[in-house]
Amino acid sequence: MNTLGDEEVARLDAWWRANNYLTIGQIYLKDNPLLRRPLTPEDIKPRLLGHWGTSPGLSFIYAHVSRLIGRTGQQAIYLAGPGHGGPALVAAGYLEGTYSEIYPKVSLDEAGMLRLFRQFSSPGGIPSHVSVTTPGSIHEGGELGYVLVHAFGAVMDNPDLLAVAVVGDGEAETGPLEGSWKGISFLNPARDGAVLPILHLNGAKIAGPTVLGRKDPAEVRSLLEGHGYEVLEVSGSDVPGMHHRFAATLEEAHGKIRAIKEAGWTGARPRWPLIVLRTPKGWTGPEQVDGIQVTGTWRSHQVPLAGVKENPEHLALLEQWLRSYRPEELFDDSGTPVELVRSLAPAGELRMSANPHANGGLLTRDLVLPDFRKYAIDVPAPATERAESTRRLGEMLRDVYRDNPDSFRLFCPDETNSNRLGAVFDVSDRAFAERVTDADVSISHDGRVMEVLSEHNCHGWLEGYNLTGRHGMFATYEAFAMVSASQTVQHGKWLQEGDRLPWRAKVPSFNILLTSTAWRNDHNGFSHQGPGLIQVVLTQRGDIARVYLPPDANCLLSVADHCLRSRSYINCIVIDKQPQLQYLDMDAAAEHCARGAGIWSWAGTDDGSTDPDVVLACAGDVVTMETVAAAQILRERLPKFRVRVVNVVDLMTLPRRKDHPHGMSETMFTELFTDTVDVVFAFHGYPGAIHQLVHGRPDADRFRVRGFIEEGTTTTPFDMTVRNRVSRYHLVMDAINNAKRLPPGATELKEWCERKLAEHAEYVVEHLEDMPDVRDWSL
Amino acid sequence: MNTLGDEEVARLDAWWRANNYLTIGQIYLKDNPLLRRPLTPEDIKPRLLGHWGTSPGLSFIYAHVSRLIGRTGQQAIYLAGPGHGGPALVAAGYLEGTYSEIYPKVSLDEAGMLRLFRQFSSPGGIPSHVSVTTPGSIHEGGELGYVLVHAFGAVMDNPDLLAVAVVGDGEAETGPLEGSWKGISFLNPARDGAVLPILHLNGAKIAGPTVLGRKDPAEVRSLLEGHGYEVLEVSGSDVPGMHHRFAATLEEAHGKIRAIKEAGWTGARPRWPLIVLRTPKGWTGPEQVDGIQVTGTWRSHQVPLAGVKENPEHLALLEQWLRSYRPEELFDDSGTPVELVRSLAPAGELRMSANPHANGGLLTRDLVLPDFRKYAIDVPAPATERAESTRRLGEMLRDVYRDNPDSFRLFCPDETNSNRLGAVFDVSDRAFAERVTDADVSISHDGRVMEVLSEHNCHGWLEGYNLTGRHGMFATYEAFAMVSASQTVQHGKWLQEGDRLPWRAKVPSFNILLTSTAWRNDHNGFSHQGPGLIQVVLTQRGDIARVYLPPDANCLLSVADHCLRSRSYINCIVIDKQPQLQYLDMDAAAEHCARGAGIWSWAGTDDGSTDPDVVLACAGDVVTMETVAAAQILRERLPKFRVRVVNVVDLMTLPRRKDHPHGMSETMFTELFTDTVDVVFAFHGYPGAIHQLVHGRPDADRFRVRGFIEEGTTTTPFDMTVRNRVSRYHLVMDAINNAKRLPPGATELKEWCERKLAEHAEYVVEHLEDMPDVRDWSL
């Protein structure tokens, strides 16, 4: 069955051959790019890097999607799951002209081609994988498993967009990828765009066969149908037969997608199409090398001919391989791709390498944000009222949802209500395309609040949503943010690199809300207690990493407003959801957050006229309460003892400015912490974080940090602070032990604290006998 | 169809009712455990914690598996994926008598029952989830998604073991769980035991419906059949009908498993059975509360009657609910379970709560280890030879495999060869139960090397293997260890807690080999460059966390030997796989590793008679090479400058002993680092790690740390060190800048270094033009 006319086949095949030629050139050649003379060892790069095996499949698909776009005008972006096939995607952008538009030195002629080859995987050049530098990409080809989450995030609220997502059979083995097929269970055909997954089974990964590559095709089909897809299959390596069959299948899939979208929501989740494409790994490459089969096996994964520089036979094979694409038909005398090749590309921004959805900063509009002050909690006096701080944030997010009906979403693993953000359900349901019953609450195909019990999906969807220019927040239990920590790392790397590319417009920041924190997972126990993500964010570069620990609701509102306005950061906001003391009225909160840290003179006994006896510093809600309580004990029981209380909201004010742009000035640091007085620092996270942040500050050794030291279980909130030695009594004793000048009564006060802690220990032991109300842990 | 006799139904149902009664008692009661008098508000706990929704399903399954064990003598362990149903598993151990054997105060009478109730989710008591304290468990019920990986790891090389793994429909949404169904593709029916997954669909999670719970059952079946299972289904809530149907289905599944195992390997992956069990969430609980449906909905997830202490109607409902189980039939006058209930339990160690496989330390035998010295590299002089260090480790692991044919496995995401550990294939193939072709190499159903492109599977399988008493190693690209970082955290928590329970015998350590490190992923680029896992391990308690950075092959062998002998630690070993300089002969290496850190006098110019001018310290292979090179430059060009080189292998020697048991003594610290001389520390990982570790050591401010500062791309190895400012030239300049006493020529040397770096920068810029051999980066 011939779907295509001869000219179409010729065009597709020419483009594909040109792409393969350029791919191999990038891996091997540092000279003689057009093979105007026989290949010599001197033409070969000193170090052969890159991944051939997946590349011809990636470019084959790319060519056909380009043809489809040309015929239909479909808005489409291309996500290469096996992004180690970087050279194929770079070559695609080059053949479409986009590459030269962005990087003029890589021109569409012989000199440019030589530069294209030399820059690949070279110092001063470009990375070997699909990366931030690759036009048309929103998906880094390094860590595998996230191609579908990025694709689904990209099409949410993008009704006209098609995300073609190639899934490699290696990455199909990863947990995150297997967990991401279910994206269609959350997609609304009327409001969202479409993802077309193409499962590209070439049968092998780095060193052996793959599970899906070796399963009975009927099992693979059953699996994907079970996920809810209509499975279309194309297999083979014959050309032009494969062109005809794949073109027909792609048109069929696109037709089904159009029909689904035209039908809109029909009351049941559509069966979206999915293509399984089976081609040999390293397709069109050298069949055998040194008598051993290479094509179709794991041996073609990277550089199939490794010895070309030393081995004349290998060199000859390489030349034969390169010439098999007939470069003389594909590039003219000046090295420019001929019209037959160039004419496959769609026009302008329809080229997948130039689609603005893949440079989402171009499409980013500021959020319509309400005045955060209107959600303020009235705080007539510090530390007197209790409130659930995140509930106020929920009210603010409700209005953000309302006012940005197609450019803001909240992503949360089944915990929106639990995290007290449920006000958003006043204006939007949870998204769900599976069956809904009358008994269900706030859930429908129309919903735009994203809840799935998968941090990987939530994180990845928001990344895709951000990178296509829309805003959002990922709210999760603090401990379980570690589930997707690697995604935080990799997305951070993307933002860091994007920041250095002038043509990449800044995208909305990735906002993480860590709630249900270690200190208040007293009811869930040790597995739920872990402030590890802060440590992870601290490893990222200062140009993108931000950590905020608002102590109360008004500070949270101010911080959230700031984060939702920012671009291209990783913003990590940490605050618990339980009722907690409120300290600052809105004016004070806004000022405090703008400074990032400040003295709370109302909490201490330091009149500011001279250095205090000790500084009690704190960052994080629960430890701030303990610090304020400790200061109160000291104020009442040692009134002559001069205690200064410093609260830190923006953790990145602590390092020196040369280490982080938020770092406070030396003057301000001295104003807060003095240069010599000991600082007892109660920190929400692991104590080491503060030690590393204050390194290089005047006499950093004087900072004694208390924090989470991996002591936890199901217990009471106060017991959590005792177990981790950051309770008010510990802080009082620390203050006394570290002060240089002690007033009378200090020794007695220490003894009093020790008694209090002994009473608590007895209470815990006896608790099983008398069970008093363990909720009582006020000041 | 009645599978069961009346007496069997009575026994099963009595046990199940008793379990449900005890579950609710744990959640609610602090007194009146046997309801000898009407319930009063004073009988109710002050704080209601726990998860009811999943519990009746968990205990229903447990009862039936117990019956099966009783009939067949099957060795079985039970893994509760939805382990937030902790009270059901605690009640099971209690009814089986195991609980009282381990915790005598929780006796099998009224006093013990009261203690059982009071201790649950209470300070000084036990956690609310299935946890380390729960006898019979190797699976913590906190972070969801790992039940199948643990189950598969447990049955590897355990041919007689059946792991019954209950998968909740919430956790079935997670990526790690979805990626773990494929465990059967790696299982050998002749050599391994069996996993029986029971997908328990009760339709809801915390706040809404689940994807699998709402899909057409035909789709769910298709999905699971696609994974390769034979799907058996049981649905309903009718009793005793459900007893009959589930018993029949469980027997059918067990029969199929026995048939598969008796057949052994038949040339194709068996279709292992799997049960889909559909019951209402909160089954047997209050149907409605305040006129709103609770049973069968997310509202029954935690505490379905929240107002019992204040609301008399709720209190009455609770009493009615408790009495619906007819406790007077289940417990005798003294509160002891009656014979009908107790008789369901299998005998002795066949009780799932007492099975030694679930307390794997009891079964742990020391590995038969070869003398690690015999794999030594000959090092006639330091820093003259290059070798791939991990290749020697591979040879050692080959012999460990050979000598421990059923108690050691290597787990690695498709990178065993890439990581130079391929010698293991001399004695074992990769495990694979899918189709194998003639062209495949080192892969078969008989293989025991575990390769799957999923860090989650590798990590989880090894956890399950370890916790059932066997040894192993997880080898992975350093950057991608972050994919499973949360598993490292959670397994660490398990080991930390287990260490405090005398009845839990110590299990083999979890050994992580981080190779293909940041510094030598110059060929793969930024996504592959990230030493983040060290930061994660540093957050764990000193009683279990260990980080080793052997600088060369002989040190690696010594460290590996030590780790393979150790118990109940997380051992993180970091070393690259590329050819690298070798420093120490085997005697010196063994001594160096035993001390954990030491002065390399051959590298420096410090004669030891007095304090040096500067200390150059290092930890990690590449940075050690740069440090040695820097010292050589200083030795040659500033011979009067006294430089001391200190190498650290065991990172945990740096903190004070009070912070970590490996912390070196104050005397040794001063001997190595002096008390006052500045230390330029070149570290493999993020610099902040060293700052946090040396906190509290004499004048910690004098430590200037260079390390990985998130600068990377595809480039040369040397350029990686330049980008991160840890190159030999940077270290020389740092040494000069920080030394207190400078000999003549120091300024000139700094200028020379700056010239060298400028030349390098030019080289990178010009590289695309001339492309010299970038592999040249010797000393």
From TrEMBL, chains A, B:
The keyword Cytoplasm does not apply. Keywords: Lyase, Thiamine pyrophosphate. Transmembrane segments: none annotated. Its cofactor is thiamine diphosphate. SUPFAM superfamilies: Thiamin diphosphate-binding fold (THDP-binding). Pfam families: XFP, XFP_C, XFP_N. Residues 577-778 form the Xylulose 5-phosphate/Fructose 6-phosphate phosphoketolase C-terminal domain. It comes from the Bacteria. InterPro entries: THDP-binding, Transketo_C/PFOR_II, Xul5P/Fru6P_PKetolase, Xul5P/Fru6P_PKetolase_C, Xul5P/Fru6P_PKetolase_CS, Xul5P/Fru6P_PKetolase_N, Xul5P/Fru6P_PKetolase_ThDP_BS. Residues 5-362 form the Xylulose 5-phosphate/Fructose 6-phosphate phosphoketolase N-terminal domain. Coiled coil: none annotated. Belongs to the XFP family. This is Phosphoketolase family protein.
